[in-house]
Amino acid sequence: MAIRVNPSFIDDLDRFGAEDVQLCYQCGDCSTVCSHADDIFKFPRKSMRQLQMGLEQKIETTLEPWLCYYCGQCSEQCPREADPGETMMSLRRWLISRYDFTGIARQFFKSRIREILSITVVALLTGAFLMFHVLSGGSIHIYDGEGAFLPSPFIHTFDLTIGSVLAVFLLINAVRMWYFTMIRGMSIPVPWWLYLKEFFELPLHFFTQKMYAECENKNEHQVHMPWLIHLGLMLGYVTMLVLVMVFIEPLQAGPEIHWSIHIFGYLATIGLSIGTIYFIRHRIKKENYIQYKKSHSTDWIFVVMLFFIVITGILQHIFHRTGLYEWANITYVIHLMAVTPWLLRMPFSKWAHMIYRPLAMYFAAIQKTAYARQDDLDDSLSVTIK
Amino acid sequence: MKNLRIGVYVCNCGTNIAKIIDAEAVAKYASNLPNVAIAKTYKYMCSNPGQEMIAQDIKDNELDRVVVAACSPNMHERTFRHALRMAGLNQYLLEMANIREQCSWVHKDRKAATKKAMALVHGAVLRVEKHEALESIDVDMSPNSLVIGGGIAGMTTALELADAGNSVHLVEKSDQLGGNVGRVDLTAPYYYSATDLLTDRITRTKSHKKIQVYLQSKVTDLSGFVGNFTANIIHLNGVPESEKTPVEVQIGNVAICTGYKEFDASRVTHYGYGKLPNVITSFELERMLRAGKVETKEGKTPKYVAIIHCVGSRNKEFHTYCSRVCCMTALKYAHEIKSANPECYVSDVYIDMNAFGKGHEDFYLQSSQAKTLFLMYDKENRPVIHKAEPSDDCEMLIEVHEKLSGEHIEIPADLIVLMVGMEAREDAHEIAHLAGISQDKDGWFIESHPKLEPVATTTDGVFIAGTCVAPKDIPDTVAQARAAAARILARIAKGKIEVDAIYSEVNKELCSGCRFCNDLCPYNAIEFIEEEGQSHVISALCKACGVCVAACPSSAIKGRHFTDDQVLAQIDGLFSKVEYELEEQPVK
After folding, report:
1. CB–CB of B264/B161 below 8 Å?
2. Which residues of chain B are at the A interface, by a Cβ-Cβ cutoff of 8 Å?
3. Taking CB atoms and an 8 Å cutoff, what residues of chain A touch B368?
């Protein structure tokens, strides 16, 4: 059965950032220089071709874009300046929009106005909701405890509510990703026990991002800067997320914050601050690393919004620790007005790569084992026939 | 017969000969042959010192015959003839023994190779004894020329010749000048208008005092030889050919610029050309572009346009060669269609992108920038065109195995353009027969040397230029046309042409007038003289191939410089008993 070519697909992907893919003439330099392309996952060359030809079904069911950490060597090598690195990035954006069953992600990726508008609306609604709650008995002079402006149990409930909504969306999208790549994308059966056998890959890639480090082993850069910063940002983010979701009450407590919470809070803040400042700086300067030379609107929103949240969080903490409770409460409201849309758009944005990428690494390991197993089966079968 | 004094010169050719053949032993062997006065070896006999040595020896030792044992006469016979002339000896008193191409290069056994070289030298010595002093002849060169074909090549040649002050007869079969270029809208890769390229040339050709244009005409007969041809031209309209009185013109040279014919796309059954209304050829698209509107037969603007390359080219079933102009023309279409209608998607279905010329690679890049979708197919696995289902958003689907992705795909299309290749004209064989030139397996005229003589033919005075030689683009065609004109002008400037003294001669006492030789001669060099009832060889046309000599039942024809005596003597020499023992072990 012949697959239908879709020549208009390339125009669609243009909005997702693949602006130069039409220049590719399939020399294959990108795959040669890539640390991670192999016999099974032949990206970026193959992905570039599928994109040019508009083979949506093929792209939707492949894990390949997720196996790329965008070190940018392919884009540096490309003789036609077709920017394979950015193409892989835009395919990840497109995949996020495909995994998302609501269609919201697609709207956000295609239009920055829609995204900024919805963020603003959610922020204002959040502000309104908080003020409404405050009017029912809070005092701006009290930070926590009895009569507090935003008491920690209330915030805890608030956080958990948003967290649950988030989890539901993410779970559904992750299941869709699994269905696309592991069911529709596989021509051979995958035995269930392979999921157990390779399960270790999931936390391994989540907490180390070791493939990013491997990218840079092949690179000319002496220090593994982008990998370290990216890892620091991610670990800081996860730590802070856990603190906010689970330990908000001791975190928000009066002067007596427990030392262990303190250490984690400070470490997370350092990771987040360095990470966001580093990425903003490189995206502005566009120097040294090719991966920061092109920035999609969603890249900017991601990093700037996160930076804003970090700054308001730090200010709020300083005001709280210095006893300026009024100021602490005001910055807290502003902080939450940014946090709520940030968290709610998680499943529809760049943020989702935190879940999809380690999942893809895990699935890819299963696929490789499955193919190797199939090869062994085929070999043994041909021997018995003889 | 007086005693002859023969000099034998054995060349080492650096190590080319000496590595396998014991040159010293060959020279020593030669020196013992009767009539050999002197035998020498030298590292490079063709070098200036080598030639001077031979010339000096001729003077000092009163040599009257020379044998050079070296490479093929094709390579250096001219060189050594020159050496003989320097010493005042007739240049035909030379014989070359080819001990390189026919001996040292093809053998490994030193002993056997040396013995063979000795036999070859022996043959040459016996042959050269029979050589006669011959004189080459000069013939007058008519300054008038005939140009067949009124396309861009023919007009360029004619204008070049006429601008230099020579009369030109330009014969064109159709009713207008311009040829195939006249059917094109814009040219790749710089979008020059083909009409603009032509208009100036057509006006100048028609109004030029020195050019006589014959439209709707053809050349029916070409006789004579270089410098002195007679051509008959007839007008094709009206009365039947047999009743026409041809115009007879006297000319010195002929330039053939008859061009090409487009491949008939309906021969590729997979493409449904002629059955599916929206499958068109590149020339049909040119007409649409010239009219300024690309649309389907139903008058709709196509959303998907597909261009299929190599229709009739690069395939075992039709032609294996590349037609050279279609790739860039296809890219030009992609550009034009996309810029006229940015909503349209152009798929370019190709085998290889042959972007060899100046500016072509950049043009290819520009097409990529314009988002042309390039899809590669295998040359032995052609695409197939189907009608689409009513539910599809396109009229047709092209099914093909796409090489770069490895996928079996179908490409949507509302309009399909077939890039038809170039083919030799069906009447090219008539021209070939008329002018005594040859065609290759595909029907293109053959050059006398594909690299060094790209516009000359094996018939002296007949030149070829443009796409009648092989597919080529406009710049290459114009370059060839100017090259042909330059070759003709050089001859006109010289006024005379030297004809080699080696040709066939008819012995009038023996010729019975049977005319066997007349038809056999591949160069039309033998005429029959009615009054005498005998055949006569036109020495200027004869190439000394020897066919008539072998065919003549009365042995009345002698090939000068290849007489029976000479050939038999050489054979005697080749079969002489040669003794040679290796003196030392060959170097490993």
Report:
1. no
2. 304, 345-347, 353, 365, 368-375, 397, 399, 402, 404-405, 407-412
3. 22-25, 80
Domains with residue ranges and CATH for chain A: 9-99 (1.10.1060.10), 108-369 (1.20.950)
Q: Give me the domains of chain B, ranges plus CATH numbers.
A: 6-134 (3.40.50), 145-259+425-497 (3.50.50.60), 265-422 (3.50.50.60), 502-560 (3.30.70.20)
Report CA torsion sign: B417, B421, B422, B427. negative
Identify residue B534 by its one-letter amino acid code.
Answer: Q
pLDDT in tens, B254-303: 999 999 999 999 999 989 999 999 999 999 999 999 999 999 999 999 99
Q: Which residue has the tokens 């042409």?
A: B497
Chain A closest CA to B380's CA: distance in Å? 19
Chain B: residue nearest A14 by CA? B371
Nearest to A52 among B370, B373, B399 (CB): B373
Of the candidates A300, A20, A54, A195, which has an alpha carbon nearest to the alpha carbon of residue B407?
A: A54
Tell me phi and psi for residue B53, to 5 degrees. -60, -45
Q: Please, which residues have CB within 8 angstroms of residue A72's CB and are 6 or more apart in sequence?
A: A85, A289, A290, A291
Pick from A5, A22, A58: CB nearest B411 = A5
Q: Which residue type is seen at B459?
A: T
Interface contact A53-B369, CB threshold 8 A: no
Chain A residues touching B372 at Cβ < 8 A: 22
CB–CB of B101/B117 below 8 Å? Answer: no
* CA–CA gap between residue A212 and residue A69 (Å, rounded): 6
Question: Structure tokens of B534?
Answer: 């005998």
Query: C-alpha distances in angstroms, B455 versus B167, B192, B313, B423?
Result: 21, 26, 24, 19
Chain B residues with CB under 8 Å of A55 CB are 405, 407
Residue B71 main-chain phi, psi, to 5 deg: -90, -165
CB-based contact B408 A2, cutoff 8 Å = yes
Contacts of B347 in chain A (CB under 8 A): 5, 7
Q: For residue range B295-349, what is the model confidence (pLDDT) as tens digits?
A: 999 999 999 999 999 999 999 999 999 999 999 999 999 999 999 999 999 999 9
Q: In chain B, which residues have their Cβ closer than 8 Å to the Cβ of A24?
A: 368
List the end-to-end C-alpha distance of chain A, in Å, as a whole number.
Answer: 32
Give the whole-angstrom CA distance, residue A299 versus residue A283: 9
Predicted pLDDT of residue A222: 58
Instruction: Look up the ipTM and state it.
Output: 0.89
